[in-house]
Amino acid sequence: MEEWSDENFMSLKTTLQQCLPFICYFHISNSDVMYKIKPDQIRKFLINNYESYLILPDQPVESIILPPRLVLKQELPARVNELFSTITNEHVSVISS
User: So which domain of life are we looking at (predicted)?
Assistant: First the structure.
């Protein structure tokens, strides 16, 4: 990061700004927001909404809150170990004789 120029950071900012609406800020823990996300990295509107949500969680917020992303464990069907060959025991006996 020390080698990055201002132009590199501006390019990164432009790229990441398109991703900001897809981040579920309201599902991030309070400690992560306080210690891992710097307020200047999030739009002021979202910070204000998040603070309002923390202070008055029963009140509606202005931003769109996406549902939490859930990773569903899909159960795979049991494997079938049946032979798929069309060669029968009769064929084997004819071939081997």
Answer: Eukaryota
Task: Please give the model's pTM, rounded to 2 decimal places.
Answer: 0.28
Concatenate the DSSP letters of all residues of 75-91 into one string: PPPPPP--------HHH
Please give the span between the terminal C-alpha atoms of the chain, in angstroms, as a whole number.
74
Say what the pLDDT of residue 45 is. Answer: 62
Q: CB-side exposure of 86: number of CA atoms within 13 Å?
A: 0
Amino acid, res. 65: I
Across 31-40, b (16+ Cβ under 10 Å) vs e yields eebeeeeeee
| Dist CA 20 CA 33 (whole Å) | 15
Where does 1-97 have alpha helices with state H? 6-17, 30-36, 44-55, 89-96
